[in-house]
Please model this.
Amino acid sequence: MSLGPEASVTDEKTAPTADAADRPGEQAIAGRSLKQIAWRRLKKDKVAIAGACVVIFLIVVAILAPLLIKLLGHPIDEYHNDALDTELGTGLPKGALGGMSWEYLLGVEPQTGRDIFSRIIYGAQTTLTVAFLSAFLSTLFGTIFGLAAGFLGGWVDSVISRIMDFLLAFPQLLFAIALLSVLPDEFFGLGPRWSRVGVLIGVIGFFGWPYIGRIVRGQTLSLREREFVEASRSLGARSGRILFRELLPNLAAPILVYTTLIIPTNILTEAALSFLGVGIPPPNPSWGGMLSDAVQFYRIDPMYMIIPGSVIFITVLAFNLFGDGLRDALDPKAR
Model:
């Protein structure tokens, strides 16, 4: 039985008093758990709910990418010269808005004629995979090291804190560019696309854990002096039980909130690396790579740049709005 702050809020309905039982028509007051309170707050935040709907939609699209492309698009590396204006020799898409039509929902690429819709869908699959798994890696390392530093203290806290300071001061982007430039394109027979995805997850996740590690360390330093932890110690609880049954449940809310807020940062980092040419290797699509290819056409065909740029903007905005709403909903001091 946990003696933490959550014990003060009950999930059960309070039993009716004798006075309430004597007065017909009066109902007993029902207590609400922290989860119920947070869910009620989150439901009232329409902006956060809208962001969550966009996030869920993007996840479904990324999962169903092969099916959606089969039904509504074309293979990602298939050239369609018939959709380009070859008579004038410009190689630009036929028609307005970058060649948008029922056959090509988001138009085609200049000079190649590849379907932008298909490449955006596959780019979503790549980008969200990198963002979610690197956020999970950062959260895992940050929680472990932050708990250890805050709970054990002493030289353990000093060593972990200095490591976090070093990684926070390290030029992450420059290191990632240098590392990705010299690594081979394939690992363990995974192919160029998923090999580079694995490297990006490792690099972004490794440099991201100190941020959440500092938050977890600070919260642990505060919680370990609370009464419920002292009560557990006085009852003979071991360190493992205090960590995983008393401290970790009370750290779940800030960890969850920070994880949702670090995902959009990872999306931008992956897009930046692909834009600089060291992310997902071509011809595999990525949103940052599409932006990089569109630079030379932004004056004569701006839609090629607007579409991937808008997708990145909407995705990052949706995650930030949902993360902010989740933070407000899980704040016990908020009304």
